[in-house]
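fyi for ur records
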Amino acid sequence: MKNRLPLIIAVAGLAAALYAVILNLVTAVPTAAQSFVIQSLIFAVVAIVCGIYALRRGGGWRFLAIAMIGPSVFVIADAGMRLALYLRQGV
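which gave:
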């Protein structure tokens, strides 16, 4: 049987990137929003790690890596600033 580990990692990374963007864009009450921000940061880091793995595979995997890393960098920038504001307010 063929080695399917790269495909599994790519699908997991794409799912993590999608889930990170969804959690980042969710608006909720302030107490739940802070946990959503932390979760989106965690999923963004997972997507970046999977994207780096796909990028090092080369070939067609590079396009999947761009699809994972691009939105994850946006999520880290946005959610990181939002988390810093939450911590500054003391919520």
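The chain has a mean pLDDT of 87. thats all i got for now
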